Give the backbone structure.
Amino acid sequence: MTRLLFDTTFLIDAERSGDDLDDLIDDDDDVAIAAVTVAELRVGALLANRKRKATRTVYVEDIIATVPVLDYDLDVAEAHAALLVEVRTQGKPRGAHDLIIAATARASNRSVVSADRTAFIDLPGVDVRSSD
């Protein structure tokens, strides 16, 4: 079984390409998303133009209904703090939401699946897989 955490870029790419998530997930994969990913997807739906708003809203609702959402809990907070210290020490800042997704993956022993590998590369304890 492969434990995966889908990041927002992966899900947005899947929506734009019309890919069915079931086709992208192996039967033995254990998939989830970070709670912050729900916020990012929801913002995209709320800000979409009238033509895309309904479609994006349905997509977000489908994700929430079918993919487990992992909370920002104490373990994630501890992993987040460690990653913040690491990137500040390295002098390589990362996006705030990307670090929360990375911390969620690290705390839950999952590999991040992303269309933007660079957001997660070289983060200790974080395995990243490209969705390409």
